[in-house]
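Supplementary Methods S3. Complex input for the flavin mononucleotide-bound model.
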Amino acid sequence: MGICHLAAEYNKDVHKYFDNPMVRQVPEGVRVPAELKIANVSIRPATVLAPMAGVTDTVFRRFIREMGGCGLLMTEFTSADGVVRWRNATAKRYLHFAPDEHPISSQLFGSHADAMADAAKRIQDHGFDMVDLNLGCPAKKVVKCNGGSGLLRDLPAIREIFESVRKAVTIPFTVKIRAGWSERELVYHELARMAEDCGLDAIAIHARTREQGYTGQAQWQWIGEVKSLVKIPVIGNGDIITPEDARAMVAETGCDGVMVGRAAASNPWIFRQIAQFTADGRYEVASREDRYRMIHRYFTMLVEEEFPGALGKMKQFASWFTHGVQGGAKLRKAIYDAREPRHVVESVDVFFAGPVPEEPAPAGTALLDQSS
Ligand SMILES: Cc1cc2nc3c(=O)[nH]c(=O)nc-3n(C[C@H](O)[C@H](O)[C@H](O)COP(=O)(O)O)c2cc1C
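Predicted complex, serialized as C-alpha cells:
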C-alpha cells in the first residue's frame, strides 16, 4: 500500500481546515500541565505534535522542536506490514529520526496482531521512546484493510492487537483513537477501558467519529468522559487552534496533555505560545519578520537535507505557512512557479526583502494571531 497515496488522502482533509473555529472562554487558574508522564517517559511540557501523514516527517519534527514548547513528537503513521518487511525503503525512510527528536513516538497502523507486535518490537529496537497504534485514520485504503478507524468496528481484533503488542515491547505503548465509526457506533468508553485493562500506558482521543471526518466541532466532552473512566494519562485532541483553546480543553476535560495537529502546520509557534501562555498568561504573536525567518528556516532545512520530494513539500506548505502573510498570494505564486527547491528559498527571500504589499491583512490572521 502506497503510504504517499494515503498521505494525499489525509491531505485532502486538511484543506477543509477548521470548519467553525470557536472563541473559547478560558477560566483562570487552569494550565496545560508542565509535565506528562507516560510510564517512564517524561514529556515536558504536556504538549504533543499530532501524527500527520505527509507532514510530520523528520525535518518538520525537528523544525517544530527547534521552535520550542513541544513536549512529544510523533511520526507519520507507518504500515506495520511495511515495517516488518523492513527492506521496504519507504518504511525505513518513515522511521528515520535524529537524536534531538527524543522523546519521540512512532505510530503504526495495521490489522494483524502478529505483524503489529513484530513491527512494534522493531520500533523499540530502532530506539523510539514509545509506540502508538492508530485507530483513527479515516482513509478509505486503510479502512478497507481493517486498519485505522476500520478497526473501531472490531473490538475483539483490537484487544488481540493490544495484547500482542503489549507482550512484545517494554517501551510505553499508547493508542490514538477516534470516538467510534459514527455517532450511532461510539466505542470510546469500551476502548478506553480495554486499553487500560491490556496495560497500555496512555490514550489519545481525537474527539470526532470516522463519519465526521474533519467536519463540525470536536466533541470535547468525550475527552472528559474518557478521563473520568481510566487512570492512565489521557491526551485530548481536536480543534486546538490557539493557546486559549489548549487551556480551555484542559479546563473542560481535565485531560493530562494536549495534542495539536493542523494548527502546527500554519502556526508552528503554537507550542511555544502555549508554553508562554501557561507561564504568564500572554504569548508572542508572529511578526512579518518572524514569518520570513520561519519559512526560510524550514525550506532551507529541506534543501540542505536534500529531502526527497522537497519541492512538492514546499508547495504543499506554501499555502499553510503563508496564511496570515500580507501579499501571500504573490508569494504562493512565486513558490508554485519555482522548478527547484533552492529557487523556492530564493523567491521567499526576494518576496520578504520587497515592500509590504498594500492590501488588507488576509482572513485567518486574526484567528492565528490572537493574543491575550
Ligand atoms: C494531513 C493530515 C494527516 C494526518 N495523519 C494522521 C496520521 O498519520 N495518524 C493519525 O493518527 N492521525 C492523523 N491525522 C489526524 C491528526 O493527528 C489529528 O487527530 C487531527 O488533525 C485532529 O487534530 P487537530 O484539530 O489539532 O488538527 C492527520 C490529519 C491531517 C490533517
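The pocket of flavin mononucleotide is lined by residues 10-11, 13-14, 50-55, 76-77, 107, 134, 136-137, 176, 206, 237-240, 260-263 (CB under 6 Å). The chain has two domains: 3-280, 288-353.
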